[in-house]
Hints:
Aspartate Aminotransferase, domain 1, alpha+beta
Amino acid sequence: xxxxxxxxxxxxxxxxxRSTLEALRRSILxxxxxxxxxxxxxxxxxxxxGKTVAGFAAFRDHMSYLPFSGSVLSQLAxxxxxxTMTKSALHFPVDRSLSKELVERxxxxxxxxxxxxxx
Length: 119
């Protein structure tokens, strides 16, 4: 059921937002292929071993990657230079997804923090 809810969320977006977040979804699932896709706090999210480790959201002027942790982004501050962010959200352009390498780093840090090790 949750995969369908994530599909519905994406279908509700206009281009290029939809394509940008579909690319991010693919990258997340390449890093954690067994992740459960859910809706958490009204946004698509990915759970591994019961812990939410990644998510995303579309806004009017930007996209957000959500690590579902207040410390992941600060741990990767050097790698995230040039992006705007809050404590719990990394913002990126509506027409350019995050690189798979960056997604992998974000998830690896979150998994380690959640006690799951890397992948």
